[in-house]
Amino acid sequence: MHVQYAVRSETGLKRSNNEDSYRIELGDRQAAALNEYFMLFAVADGMGGHPCGELASMLACDGLVDALFTRKKGSVKDLQGELVKIFFDIDEQLRLYAGKNPACEHMGTTLSAFVLSGGKAVIAHVGDTRIYSLHDEKLSLLTTDHTFVQEMVERGTMTAETAESGLYRNMLTQVVGTDEHIEDVCINTIDIKPGDRILLSSDGLHDVILFQEIEQIMKDGASPEDTAGQLLSQAIAKNGRDDITLIVAHMS
């Protein structure tokens, strides 16, 4: 499968530094142990208002890449369990780092990973960064936000529409790092077909652009570069104040 991709990462209007990190890795290193050629896309968003958010997101992405390229050979099914373990390991590594560096006490980050191998993609996720898939002209959200308002939606005490603009929509219930150990990692495997389009984004994008708007831009984009540019421009036009990071991939 041929993959084209584009990335954008910009500091938000209220930020002096970009606390987001991302990684795009091709599985063509000699040390790569996946059975087939693979690609990794990952986005992490360091916790705003907490020390060392930028460092937390960078360390999380680096830890993910290092672990994938040193894993033992295995199937895509094996990768699901291994990604869960990798996320728990990164969670502990960040906690240990913060313990040795008091200036980074409570450091934390979201982390969303998309690993493409053959016609399958394994998705692992903690936090409120997101992964979307456009298939047959229909956009689907492949991740579930670990936020206070999302829990209310799942309990039926808040509608999804209200949650999109809710006062506590950015109040995270689970992140990688901090003093609170992660309880679980959202993990899933999906089929990927030629013509599918993938989007990974930090909340600086999807907090200001509606789902329907993202869907239309994803459908209309002639190339990943065009789509990424349109999404970023729209977020900035809507006075996006948080850091904005996005990866767009087209499969053919």
Structure overview:
It contains seven helices and twelve strands. It has helices spanning 53-68, 76-100, 148-155, 160-164, 203-206, 211-220, 224-237, and strands at residues 3-10, 20-26, 38-45, 108-109, 111-117, 120-126, 130-135, 138-141, 176-177, 186-191, 197-201, 244-251. The protein has 252 residues and is α+β, with helices and mostly antiparallel strands. Helices cover 33% and strands 28% of the residues. α1 runs antiparallel to α2 (76-100). The N and C termini lie close together (6 Å).
Largest sheet: 5 strands, antiparallel
Write down the secondary-structure element order.
EEEHHEEEEEHHEEEHHHE
CATH class: Alpha Beta
Count of DSSP strands: 12
Per CATH, the architecture is 4-Layer Sandwich
Portion in beta strands? 25-35%
Question: In CATH, what is the homologous superfamily?
Answer: PPM-type phosphatase domain
Instruction: Name the helicity range.
Output: 25-40%
Radius of gyration: 17 Å
> Taking strands numbered 1, 2, ... along the chain, how are they ordered across the largest sheet?
1-12-11-7-8
Mean pLDDT across residues: 88
Our count of helices gives 7
What is the CATH topology descriptor? Phosphatase 2c, domain 1
Q: Please state the structural category.
A: alpha+beta
